Amino acid sequence: MALGPELLPGEGLLIQGENLEVMKRLHSAWGSCLDFIYADPPFFSGRTFRSPSGRPRSGFQDRWPEGLDSYLAWLGERFQIMRELLADTGTMMVHLDAHAVHYVKVECDRIFGRDHFLNEIIWHYTGGGRSKRYFSRKHDNLLWYRKGKEWTFQIDAVRVPYRKSSGYARSGIVSARGKRYLPNRLGTPIDDVWDLPMVNPLSRERTGYPTQKPESLLNRLLQGCTRPGDLVADFFCGSGTTGVAAQRLARRWILCDDSPGAISICRDRIGKSAGVRLRREASPKVGKMAYRFTAAAAGAAR
Predict the structure, then answer these.
(1) Same domain assignment for residues 180 and 53
(2) Residue 86: beta bridge partners?
(3) For residues 141 and 105, what is the distance between their CA atoms, to the nearest angstrom?
(4) How many domains does one find in the chain?
């Protein structure tokens, strides 16, 4: 477990600010302190995402008039400091889609090293419209990179039940050499294609944030890639799903977003998710607009 801010498992910092400057301050204050980074940046989609009703200034522009090279340079500068923020055993998961993921992988290979690439996870989902001109685009790509020679992977924490039709699940298998392999009581290891639903528009989980990711996705990532007490970060935090998952799974966490509306959503959502007390913390180490979520009983914000 990496060092860093004095946080207990489940506690975290929510920081409003431009993420590059925030990350530089964090690195200056705590060095290489992160065990895991989930990076969910703009996708180079060319779209404008509107603020949800009642939440001012939480939408954002995913437009790059100067083109792909400008986007990659912008991301690369941030990925470089993210790598520096990782502990030697830390990893980073980059969440994108077909708009730019293949170009971004080349950039990540340059920053982390091609041999430090661990996985491309395909998150498959359903819902929304269907194309009549090409195969419907119903998946995102998650690129997983390690910083050093060792990293955390907890396969038993993310096993799934065997299929009922699986003969292996009933009695195991016997190899050609006669060795018998029995099913694991925890289930079968998941592979790199994940079928998880998007956040249903009618779900109680829904915040209205335009690019909200489901808690089931972040739960699986944190369970598989971190241990309890690890320090995780999301510097494009949006609606705060990473913080919700980290809090419930007893990970320490740091969230950052430049949008006042996104910060407002995160403050409300994380505070309600586990009944924690919110304390505003103005610290030159992380910026004036920083909020600290303590593990104490629920109470009014101070």
Answers:
(1) no
(2) 34
(3) 10
(4) 2
